[in-house]
Input
Amino acid sequence: MDCNCGPHGEDTDWSWGTFHSKTFHSLGLVPGVLCLVAVSAITTWSDYMIGTFKHNHPEVYGIDDAGYKMFGVIGREVLAIVFMLYWIFVSGSALLGISIGLNSVSTHAACTAVFVAVAAVLGFGFSSIRTLGRIGWLAWVGLVCIMTSIGVQDRPAAAPTEGHWESDWQLTNNPTFVDGISAVSAHIFAFSGTPAFFSIAAEMREPKYYARSLLTCQTIVTVTYITIGVVVYYYCGSSVASPALGSAGIIMKKVCYGFALPGLIVTAMLMTHYLFIRLLRGTPHLNSSNMVHWGTWLACTGGVTIVAYIIASAIPIFSSLVSLIGALLTLMCFQPYGCMWLYDNWTSGKKDKSLKWCLMVAWSIFVIVSGTFIMIAGTYGSVVTIMESFPVIWWYRCLVLR
Output
C-alpha cells in the first residue's frame, strides 16, 4: 500500500505545470490565467533582454557576468549565489517529485521520506554523467506523458466518495492578501528559469534566430501551463490533489507517475552543473579528465544533491516553499533585466528623449519596482503560510509516526 507518512504526502506541490490548478483556485480561474499571462509576458521581455545584452556585450556568458558588468564584483557574486540557490531548490523540488512518484507506483509500505533518499541517490548518479546528449530525450518523454496524464481526470480522489459530486471551480475568487501574493509568487517560480537563456544565447549557432526561438519556447510553455492548470482545476475544483497527477484516483495515479518519472529524474540531474563550470572556468582542469576535474565534478554534484535532499526532507509544506522561493528569487527574472536596459540605453537616451525611450524607461522601472515588491510581499505571505501550517504539520507527524 502507499504510505504518505510525514509531511510529504499528497499535500506536496512539485510540478511547475500542475500546481497552477491550486493557484487558480486561490485567485479564481480568470484572474489566475491573467496573472499567469502577465508573468509570462514580463519574463519573455526579460529573456529577450538577455539576447540583446549578450549581443551588446559578447564577453557576457551568464547572469553573474552581467551583474559584474553593471554593478562590479558585488553584483557578480550576489547574482551568482542567488542563481546557484535557485537551481539547488529546483533540484530539491525534483527530488521530492521523484519520491512522490516512486511512492505512488510502489506497493511497498515505505515512508515518502525513504523515497526522498532513493531519489537523491538517483539524482546524484544521473547528474554525475557528464554527457547529457544521449539521454536528454527523456525530458521529452516526461513532458509528453504528463500532458497525456492530465486528460484522464475523472472524479478526484480527494472528493467525497459517496453521493453526487460536481466540481466547485470558480471564475473569480476573493483571496486574502497572503493567499493572493503566494499564488503570484508560485507563478513567478514557474517562469524563473530566465537566467538559463544566457547560455542559450551564448551557444546558439545562429544568434539571429534567438528572438524567434525565445517566442516559440515561451508560447509553448505558457500554453502548457494554462492548459494543465485550467483542465485540472475545471474538472477537480478545490478537490484537486497536490500534486495534481494524483487527482484521477489510485490506479491512474500510478500510471501517470510511472509515465512522468523519467522526466523528473532528468530534471533532477540537469540542475547540478552550473557550480562546476563556475569553479573551473578559465582553468585547464575544465576540459581535462584529471583528478582535479573529477574531484570537483563529484564534489559539486554530491554537494548540491545533499543540500537538495535536506531541503526536500526538512521542509514540511513544499507548496509554501515554492511560493517562498518564487518570491525570494524574483531576482532571477525581474530586476536585473530592467537594469540591463537602463545600463545600455540611459546615457544615450538622455541626449534625445524620444517617446519610445521614455516609455521603455518607465517599463524598466516598473519591472524593477514590481519585482522588488513581490520579493518582499511574497516572502512575507509565504512565511505567514508556513508558520500557520506548522501546528498542523507537527500534529500530523506525531499521529502518523508515533
